[in-house]
Design a protein that fits this description.
Blueprint (H helix, E strand, L loop, with lengths): L17 H11 L8 H12 L3 H18 L4 H17 L8
Length: 98
Amino acid sequence: MQKFAVFDIDKNLYKDTLAHDFILGLIDGGAMPSDAESVDVYLKMRADGSDQTTIDTALVAALKEAQASGRLKFSDYTRIGQEVADTALMNGEFFEFN
């Protein structure tokens, strides 16, 4: 199998933000410590409807804190990443080009 990476900066491939779906997947999957203060801040900002820049900044802070905790493993990234991509694909969240 050949590896392939896509960066969708302007949301022309995916209807939402995969980074946020990925972080939520890490939290829901138990790979990211949900009790971390930065994760709580991130989830609160999303729920409150904060502006996208603020939410993105909180996402990065939460990921950094989780990585610093030593609890995240490469296998978590690959497992959750595959699950998030599969779910998005099955739910028709990618735009189709003909």
